[in-house]
Inverse folding.
């Protein structure tokens, strides 16, 4: 094992058998083991009595689960840094962050240690590390995949989803987790909207170059509440995390400083602010749904800058801007997938494709077509 591989796995295990290997994030229940959630505090909890529902589904589908992967503690951070379990290295760009919170899953897949990583995405926690590590990551539509046995237990934003080195791996994982999942019937001549958003010049250049290979003519579109949805997502996740973990206060024994500080801030969310955020969630969801009456898919970059250097990630709160382009679709609940591409300097960024609710299969089918057209995806895979 290289350094990245050993840091990517919290606890080796073997559930099931088969040629396809997978890891699950450390917040998935495994019978007989504590659900550590990347935290010294939760490494001391009683062992789970049963596997998470998706774990059993994967095993029944013939996928071998070979380990539980490291994560940003309590799934409440975007850098992947974890001083307790160890911080996974970004396999191809080790000086840059691996991304979080599904950090170990992304590192394990990108390094070739496993074929599939199963993570969670509450504010970009699958798509962000996938983009940072040059792989594919899918946040399914909210509620599509059973969340039973996954922590934190109560969330109006969180989705279980897969990472893989290509879209075929994503489809294999989805077929195991969702009965009747079908990505074999792409939409003929899809209507594609290119969502207006801000991104650094290298990201914009890479995105435009990739879109230019697709032989489609995306139409410029906008979402008036996009930036407000980002802010609303931060407010909602903070309120829900405080509701889940308030009992750890005031000492926050066994909790890392960065997560403890975020939880202290979360305690300050007042009912009026949460109500306003939920109203924005409702209005933004309706705005996105309305756009999908005219378009089949939306495209935009996954991250608005190249992944920062690890030395720039000492203040995790400063890195929340990395989720500016992904977090809004946790607020609306729509399925979104990221595909890898590179800047002219060879640094990883991503192309994000968003689809209507209930259309995860066609979204993956379209992503497979896009993947085939992007030359850089072949270099990364």
């Amino acid at each position: 094992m290289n350094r990245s591989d050993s840091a990517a796995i919290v606890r080796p295990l073997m559930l099931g058998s088969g040629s396809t290997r997978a890891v699950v994030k450390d917040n998935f229940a495994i019978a007989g083991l504590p659900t550590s959630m990347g935290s010294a505090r939760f490494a001391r909890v009683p062992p789970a009595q049963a596997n998470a529902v998706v774990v059993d589904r994967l095993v029944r589908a013939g996928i071998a689960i070979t380990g539980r992967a490291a994560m940003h503690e309590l799934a409440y951070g975007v850098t992947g840094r974890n001083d307790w379990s160890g911080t996974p290295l970004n396999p191809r760009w080790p000086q840059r962050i691996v991304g979080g919170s599904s950090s170990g899953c992304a590192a394990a897949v990108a390094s070739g240690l496993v074929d599939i990583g199963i993570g969670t995405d509450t504010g970009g926690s699958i798509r962000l590390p996938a983009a940072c590590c040059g792989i594919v990551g899918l946040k399914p539509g909210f509620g599509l995949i059973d969340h039973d046995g996954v922590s934190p237990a109560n969330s109006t934003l969180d989705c279980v989803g897969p990472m893989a080195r290509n879209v075929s791996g994503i489809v294999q994982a989805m077929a195991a987790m969702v009965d009747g999942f079908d990505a074999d019937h792409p939409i003929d001549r899809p209507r594609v909207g290119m969502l207006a958003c801000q991104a650094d010049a290298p990201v914009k250049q890479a995105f435009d170059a990739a879109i230019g290979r697709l032989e489609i003519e995306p139409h410029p579109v906008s979402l008036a509440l996009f930036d407000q949805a980002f802010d609303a997502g931060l407010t909602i996740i903070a309120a829900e995390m405080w509701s889940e973990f308030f009992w750890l206060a005031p000492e926050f024994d066994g909790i890392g400083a960065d997560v403890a500080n975020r939880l202290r801030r979360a305690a300050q969310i007042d009912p009026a602010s949460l109500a306003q955020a939920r109203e924005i969630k409702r209005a933004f969801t309706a705005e996105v749904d309305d756009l999908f009456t005219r378009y089949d898919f939306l495209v935009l970059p996954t991250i608005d800058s190249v992944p920062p250097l690890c030395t720039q990630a000492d203040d995790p709160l400063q890195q929340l801007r990395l989720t500016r382009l992904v977090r809004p679709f946790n607020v609306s609940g729509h399925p979104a997938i990221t595909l890898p591409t590179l800047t002219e300097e060879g640094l990883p960024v991503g192309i994000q494709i968003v689809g209507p609710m209930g259309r995860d299969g066609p979204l993956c089918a379209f992503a497979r077509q896009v993947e085939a057209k992007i030359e850089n995806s072949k270099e990364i895979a």
